[in-house]
Amino acid sequence: MIYGDTFLIKPKDRLFDRHLWVVISDPRTDAQRILIVNLTTWNRDKDSACILKPGDHPFIHHTTCVSYQDAKIVKDSFLEQGLRFGLIFPQEPASDDLVEAIIRGAGISPFLPLGCRDVLVQQKLLEE
What we know:
Blueprint: E1 6-9, E2 21-23, E3 34-41, E4 51-52, E5 64-74, H1 76-84, E6 88-91, H2 96-108, H3 114-122
Antiparallel strand pairs: 1-2, 1-6, 2-3, 3-5, 4-5
């Protein structure tokens, strides 16, 4: 997977997770620490650091936000195994503009875990 790739994950207990995941760091820079975030339906109780609308990505059909609190750092091997075993389903890649908006939101979200922010800072995708 590369920067901007999106995918669905098949959880153990359901056919599909309803959340689209987005790769927002560069696996070529650090394949051991890849930052992924998911998108979820927005409401007033959720993080508003990055609110998305239909048209921002083909998967988005209503007002959506990035769930920074659920951000994960994964290894390339996790993503590759998921693809190989049919647990990860690639979707339409995110545009550079969309990924940049998600990264900007990561910079202002109070919910992004500290280790996740470090990945973006080390890759010079986000300022300290």
